[in-house]
Specification:
Shape: globular
Low-confidence stretches: none
Distance between the termini: 67 Å
Number of helices: 16
Mean pLDDT: 93
CATH class of one domain: Alpha Beta
Strand content: 25-35%
Helix content: 25-40%
Largest sheet: 14 strands, mixed
Structural class: alpha/beta
CATH architecture of one domain: 3-Layer(aba) Sandwich
Length: about 550
């Protein structure tokens, strides 16, 4: 074992970590447990199989998989080959799957047996693949009925493959990592990173808790290794929220626990209790509210004393839900992270245990964050917004940022800009900057509602409405209106379907925090608010639902 990884290639860092703690649990998913040694050995076997099939540097390996050990094994195997894993939303039907396979130029595919129908629907595209592997599901998901003739059972492929290490010349921090966006506001886009840049911008840079600062050199990683950390992300591995944080802790010697199957708050708390989880990460109000509600409904059922940090990522918490989280875990550090596939981690709102007043929790429905030194807010002229001016600008990050959108120079040019010799990635997040430098996140510019000449950011209204006890989940959209242009409309899943909140009740609740033009003028009650498996809002669905209900 060497004192440092050979390079910033993510496989080099992984192999170094695995050699340090070979017998420690690396991953727990349902009944499956993998030590660092076992996970590495299985990744080696898969890499040998893929190489024999013709997969090498730069080739794309698509992962149409739910949570399971195979997801991590496949990612690590691809990194070992200098190939590029491609995250696929496992909810995609055939047409959406084809889009990702074609756009990513995938030459290998791994999929769960329960997803066979979608894969069979792109049989002609699968025929072009060098390798196709089918993975058995961990849970009771019914197998798909679609036939995929070329598919090789995953475990059979590993059993037949050599079991020794695999060598790939030229591994370095310049190798590529690809993360497809959620596609909740349009077609998913592949964001292409260098491994080294992703390590620092997305994977913590050797500082998963963001308390010590990034490492200066690979040799410093040894000092950041932990004795015991058990980490549970409530998100699917196909999403950055789980992928990034899982690798953060694997590179520090931690144990990751994943929720098999669909999100279930009871099952998640069972895992916290059973595995002695230390750090729990959730995804926005849509996950955090049911987690808190379930915990409150069963006092004393679960031992959560092992927790010392509770975090949120991918979708900011509304202030009311964040306040509940702080109150539920007063002895924990509570962190709400901010970032995107295009930017990496940009900032956080953090409350330390016992902090006076519960830390800086924003009022109303606007989330507030402290950002890092390479993140700022740029105005329409691409100049930094003056703190305290109230000017609305776009969140922007420089330094270690992606190469761009894979295969899409036009979208890359629109999002990645150079100003005075500095390259920036412009997110769609609209923000203001307080006099002390705190960034207040208003919402996505693409979702902004123009009503009567005023701009309304849905996330601000949603943040306030989430504080109403009758609201289980909510999205806010604009519906065409003869007088207002667009009418602010709330699409609400009620806490009690038999007694949903009324529009007047919601308006009265929000009036203290929102100007009159921001109050919802319409209300649509639904059984469930549609979100991605990672909790991302589906605003297209919400807009269609609201328009249909009000037409």
């Amino acid at each position: 074992m060497t004192d440092a990884p050979a390079s910033f290639n993510l496989a080099d860092i992984w192999e170094w970590a695995a050699a340090r703690v070979p017998d420690r649990d690396a991953l727990v998913v349902g009944p499956a447990r993998r030590t660092y040694r076992e996970l590495d050995e299985r990744a080696n076997r898969l890499a040998h199989h893929l190489r024999a099939a013709g997969i090498g540097p730069g080739d794309r390996v698509a992962l149409d998989l739910r949570n399971g050990p195979e997801y991590l094994e496949a990612m690590i195997a691809a990194f070992k080959l200098r190939a590029i894993p491609v995250n696929v939303n496992f909810r995609y039907v055939a047409g959406e799957l084809r889009w990702v396979l074609d756009t990513s130029r995938a030459s290998a595919l791994l999929y769960h047996r329960s997803l066979a129908d979608a894969v069979a629907g792109v049989a002609d595209r699968v025929e072009e693949m060098h390798a196709v592997l089918v993975v058995d599901d961990l849970d009771d998901a019914p197998p798909g009925t679609g036939e995929v003739p070329r598919a090789v059972p995953y475990d059979e492929a590993l059993a037949a493959a050599p079991d020794g290490p695999i060598e790939t010349e030229g591994r370095s921090g310049d190798d590529h990592y690809l993360m497809f966006t959620g596609g909740t506001t349009g077609r998913p886009k592949g964001v292409l990173w260098r491994h080294e840049d992703a390590f620092f911008a997305c994977l913590g840079g050797g500082d998963p808790m963001r308390l010590q600062g990034p490492i200066a050199d690979l040799a410093d990683l040894a000092d950041r290794f932990v004795e015991r950390i058990v980490y549970l992300p409530i998100a699917p591995m196909m999403h950055a929220a789980a992928q990034w944080t899982t690798f953060m802790w694997l590179f520090a010697g931690g144990t990751t626990v994943l929720v098999p199957g669909s999100f279930d708050a009871t099952a998640a708390w069972d895992l916290v209790d059973r595995e002695g989880v230390n750090i729990l990460t959730m995804v926005g109000d849509a996950v955090t509210k049911p987690m808190l509600d379930t915990l409150a409904a069963h006092p004393g059922r679960w031992d959560t004393s092992s927790l010392y940090a509770v975090a949120n990522g991918a979708a900011p918490l509304s202030p009311s839900v964040r306040r509940r989280l702080v109150e539920a875990f007063p002895s924990c550090m509570v962190t709400d992270g901010m970032g995107s596939s295009e930017s990496g981690i940009q900032g956080a709102a953090r409350t330390m245990p016992g902090e006076e007043g519960g830390g800086a929790i924003a009022a109303g429905g606007i989330a507030a964050f402290a950002v890092g030194p390479t993140t700022t807010v740029l105005d329409d002229d691409l100049r930094p917004v003056e703190p305290g001016s109230g000017t609305i600008g776009r969140l922007a990050t420089s330094g270690r940022i992606p190469l761009g959108y894979d295969g899409d120079p036009e979208k890359t040019a629109a999002t990645f800009v150079t100003v005075d010799g500095v390259r920036w990635v412009l997110s769609g997040d609209m923000c203001t900057v307080d006099a002390d430098g705190t960034v207040r996140l208003l919402g996505r510019g693409s979702q902004c509602i123009n009503t009567g000449g005023e701009k309304v950011f849905p996330e601000e209204v949603e943040g306030v409405l989430h504080g109403h006890p009758g609201v289980a989940d909510v999205l806010v959209v604009g519906v065409p209106h003869e007088r207002w242009g667009s009418a602010v409309t709330a699409v609400v899943a009620p806490t009690d379907p038999a007694a949903p909140p009324t529009l007047d009740e919601l308006r009265a609740h929000a009036r203290a925090d929102l100007a009159g033009y921001k109050l919802p003028k319409g209300l649509v009650i639904v059984d469930e608010v549609r979100r991605s498996p990672a909790g991302k809002a589906d605003y297209r669905w919400a807009a269609d639902t609201a328009a249909a209900a009000t037409s």
